[in-house]
Amino acid sequence: MNETTRAIRSDAARTVRTILEAAERVLSRNPAASMEQIAEAAGVARTTVHRRFASREALVDAMAAWATRRFAEAVDSAHPDTTPPLVALYQVTASVLRVKLDWGFAMSRALSADPEVARVHADVAESCDRLFRRAQAAGVLRADVDPDWARRVYYALMHEAAQSPDGDPDDLAARVVDTLLRGVGTGQLL
């Protein structure tokens, strides 16, 4: 491949990313926004959007696929199988919250019926299960806690944290991990 071809492909990839990012901003504010509104927000001609995405549905599908890849990369970037469990838990939480906050519209459209989305979510669930077992073995989670239950509670906390549109991912991650590990009670029994 020559230098000109690489430059054209790189430019096309930047254009697609610009369109996807603009679509996320526009559609998260107005889910009924038109392709023309998305093109305007991306700073490109409507024909450019249509050339890259045959339909609005194709654009939303591409957004969901993009966000799903970012989600998987966020988990992998924390090295959950090798980083100390408490550090990995915080890093995974902060990284995933960044994706969920930045790509909330697209993440909500990532259908589990899509084989790639289902595969990514299954891989992430396995990674999370391994991390929770490691955390339990290291004493981060109590020995009597069911790791599956802890993971489901963690997912619920993550979902709620991702509903904070102006939340700082690092602050939210600290709250999620603190709530997961220490709860919200005083420790006194009834």
Describe what this molecule looks like in 3D:
The mean pLDDT is 88. The chain has helices at 3-29, 35-42, 46-52, 56-77, 85-102, 104-109, 115-137, 147-161, 169-182. Helix 4 (56-77) runs parallel beside helix 7. It contains nine helices and no strands. With 190 residues, the protein is an all-alpha fold.
Percentage of residues in strands: under 5%
- Work out the number of β strands: 0
Spatial gap, N to C terminus = 71 Å
| Mean pLDDT over all positions | 88
Counted by DSSP, the helix tally is: 9
Rg is: 20 Å
Low-pLDDT residue spans: none
Order of helices and strands: HHHHHHHHH
Bin the helical content: over 70%
**Basic shape:** elongated
Major sheet description: none
Structural class: mainly alpha
Blueprint (SSEs and pairs):
Layout: H1 3-29, H2 35-42, H3 46-52, H4 56-77, H5 85-102, H6 104-109, H7 115-137, H8 147-161, H9 169-182
Helix pairs in contact: 1-2, 1-4, 2-3, 4-5, 4-7, 5-7, 5-9, 7-8, 8-9
Question: In summary, what is this structure?
Answer:
By secondary structure, the chain is mainly α. Helices cover 74% and strands 0% of the residues.
Keywords, separated by commas or semicolons:
single chain, 190 residues, mainly alpha
